[in-house]
Amino acid sequence: MNRREVLQGLGAAAMMMPAINGLAAQTAGDETVYELRIYHTNPGKLEPLLKRFREKETAIFVRLGMHPVGYWTPDDDPLKGNALIYILRHKSRAAATESWAKFSKDPEWVKLKAETEANGAFVEKHDVTFMTLTDFSPKV
Amino acid sequence: MNRRDVLQGIGAAMMVATAGGVEAQSGSAKSEVVYELRIYHAMEGKLDPLLARFRDHTIAIFSRHGLKLVGFWTPTDDPLKGNALIYILKHPSREAATANWKSFHDDPEWVKVSTASEANGKLVEKVDSTYMTLTDFSPSV
Description:
The complex is a heterodimer of chains A (140) and B (141). Chain A is α+β, with helices and mostly antiparallel strands. In chain A, 43% of the residues lie in helices and 26% in strands. Chain A has one domain (30-131): 2-Layer Sandwich (Alpha-Beta Plaits). Chain A has helices spanning 3-21, 46-63, 93-105, 107-116; strands at residues 33-41, 67-74, 83-90, 123-133. In chain A, strands 2-3-1-4 form a 4-stranded antiparallel beta sheet. Chain B has one domain (31-132): 2-Layer Sandwich (Alpha-Beta Plaits). Chain B has helices at 3-19, 47-64, 94-106, 108-117; strands at 34-42, 68-75, 84-91, 124-134. The interface between A and B is large, with 44 and 45 residues.
């Protein structure tokens, strides 16, 4: 590795950094979409659902190209204790469709879901909202 | 610059990169940080003026009152397409959220801007607000 390669490497790393936290709107030609998902759980199933996300499910998302932005649980009734709210980022709407199709057929996921839901489904209902970043949003 | 310096430099750069990456609210188990998911359902034909008000005024006023901006989005599909704004704020605590919203509503610039922008009718029909806490397996936000 010579000095020039080093500087190029550092330059590339530095260029990537502001994009992570900076204030930069979605640029033209960027097809990135975000997906807001709200899972309404069956009684007593939020904890096992969170455990499944913590231990396995988020890793499967990442492996299939879905980028988790954040996972939250509501603090107040009526959603407190029975909902998980999260946002995924996808390269495009088509990529989202493809990733979810792969996910639903993924052997690790199929096995995991069958095992964890042997005593009943975790999720009663889920709300899905696809969305794009506004031009005045911080980068997410 | 020798090889060791280079590797240290790259290591430091990688650490900076992870600052925005996966790190939940660990080390701050008692953290009171709360997030607020807000969904604004705009009056018919009022999404664009609502977005303009956020772009030109509201987000700056939010920042002045300690309301930290996480992200702002618009839905891409019916039935919310063209009539909703979704955003997330980060607050130091629930109490801070209450105090900061109050100071926001009392802010003279906000009072002026909201009055002027709604001279021809309200922009927002309904606001859904959900306070929430980051899970222990979430990336930091």
